[in-house]
């Protein structure tokens, strides 16, 4: 069992608070992505879990064992934690084999087959062992960094934005290889990232860090489909935000009367609400009584395109359409909701 339990963790630098009371449980063998803006304190949290930094308050348990808090601090090398830094952090003067075996006990270092096993686990050929880090691509270096972290069979693996320096194609393939390797070892994993797509696609659980706290913790679907407020909805992806007025039929807004999927009218007791809908949940298909507007701009992305439409007598909205059916600027198009909507009390 290697569940990570973080309770009430607080820390700051030079009197400036960074983490202001974090609570998080990462169940054994699962992956949690900590998603937050740059400078929010994600690396600071990993350093505390690894034992490189002591919190001012709070506790951390790994596999039920208190590793920090209540006046106790287990040193990093005895926490059973592997850490992969953003830049990989390989030793340039050692070959790949030397990097992987660096922290191993002397007897284990002689077992060359262990290096081969670890390289295979992260999807690299055995011959990579004799190469120097500067002979490898960025993605290969990150896989070696993971192999080095896994060499000591850690219960917990901490990944600090390990894919952020890689280009799109390499990032996806490296991420897949790392996810497969981690699943095989059964390690409990915490990934920190400011990349929403990465968090949603890589993790079993996502924790949104905001102002030194977790504003929401849930499955990727819960986080994306039911963000706690408009700010979080916008942080997780493109949103169309419209002022609305609850009526007994639904929420009245520039797109007409919009009903929530359950048919209920949330916040019916409020005079005004913010209605939030994702561009992919709007469509340019006609329907009786739907809104119309003029296409202002189109942004082509290959598989899809983002179309900006000025609604007649209303605000501008973005609609995501298939890349093969993009209208032209100036065209008059129908716009209607074709998916879930979120409503929040007006700020
Ligand atoms: N050793 C330090 N001394 C003083 N301030 C620090 C130190 N380390 C981090 N900070 C500050 O603490 C805040 C949180 O930094 P941290 O690196 O944890 O954020 P992050 O979310 O990981 O950012 P990024 O996504 O850019 O890596 C930042 O404002 C940073 O400037």
Automatic annotation (TrEMBL):
Highest taxon, organism lineage: Bacteria
SUPFAM superfamilies from the UniProt entry: MOP-like, P-loop containing nucleoside triphosphate hydrolases
PROSITE patterns registered for this protein in UniProt: ABC_TRANSPORTER_1, ABC_TRANSPORTER_2
Stored CDD domains: ABC_Carb_Solutes_like
Domain ABC transporter as annotated: residue spans: 4-236
GO molecular function, one term: ATP binding
The keyword GTP-binding is assigned to this record: no
Keywords for this protein: ATP-binding, Cell membrane, Ion transport, Iron, Iron transport, Isomerase, Membrane, Nucleotide-binding, Transport
Entry-linked Gene3D superfamilies: P-loop containing nucleotide triphosphate hydrolases (3.40.50.300)
Xref: InterPro entries: AAA+_ATPase (IPR003593), ABC_SmlMolc_Importer (IPR050093), ABC_transporter-like_ATP-bd (IPR003439), ABC_transporter-like_CS (IPR017871), ABC_transpr_FbpC (IPR015853), Mo/tungstate-bd_C_term_dom (IPR008995), P-loop_NTPase (IPR027417), Transp-assoc_OB_typ2 (IPR013611)
Name under which the protein is recorded: ABC transporter ATP-binding protein
The species this protein was found in: Janibacter alittae
């Amino acid at each position: 069992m290697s569940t990570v339990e973080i309770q009430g963790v607080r820390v700051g630098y030079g009197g400036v608070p960074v983490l202001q009371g974090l609570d998080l449980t990462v169940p054994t063998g699962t992956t949690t992505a900590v998603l937050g803006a740059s400078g929010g304190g994600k690396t600071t949290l990993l350093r505390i879990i690894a034992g490189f930094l002591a919190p001012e308050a709070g506790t951390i348990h790994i596999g039920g064992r208190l590793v920090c808090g209540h006046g106790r601090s287990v040193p990093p090398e005895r926490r059973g934690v592997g850490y992969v830094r953003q830049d990989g952090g390989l030793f340039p003067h050692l070959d790949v084999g030397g990097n992987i075996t660096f922290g191993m006990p002397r007897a284990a270092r002689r077992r060359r087959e262990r290096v081969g096993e670890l390289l295979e686990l992260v999807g690299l050929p055995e011959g990579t062992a004799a190469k120097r880090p500067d002979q490898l691509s960025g993605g290969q270096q990150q896989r070696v960094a993971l192999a080095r972290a896994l060499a000591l069979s850690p219960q917990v693996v901490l990944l600090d934005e390990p894919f952020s320096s890689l280009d799109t194609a390499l990032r996806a393939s490296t991420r897949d290889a790392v996810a497969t390797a981690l699943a095989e070892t059964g390690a409990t994993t915490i990934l920190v990232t400011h990349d929403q797509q990465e968090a949603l696609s890589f993790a079993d659980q996502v924790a949104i860090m905001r102002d030194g706290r977790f504003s929401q913790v849930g499955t990727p679907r819960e986080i994306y489909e039911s963000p706690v407020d408009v700010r979080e909805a916008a942080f997780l992806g493109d949103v169309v935000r419209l002022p609305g007025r609850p009526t007994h039929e639904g929420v009245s807004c520039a797109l007409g009367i919009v009903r929530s999927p359950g048919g209920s009218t949330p916040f019916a007791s409020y005079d005004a609400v913010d209605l939030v809908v994702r561009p992919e949940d709007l469509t340019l298909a006609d329907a009786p009584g739907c809104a119309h507007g003029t296409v202002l701009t189109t942004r082509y992305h290959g598989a899809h395109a983002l179309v900006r439409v000025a609604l007649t007598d209303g605000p501008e909205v973005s609609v995501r359409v298939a890349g093969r059916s993009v209208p032209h600027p100036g065209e008059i198009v129908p716009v209607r909701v074709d998916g879930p909507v979120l409503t929040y009390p007006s700020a």
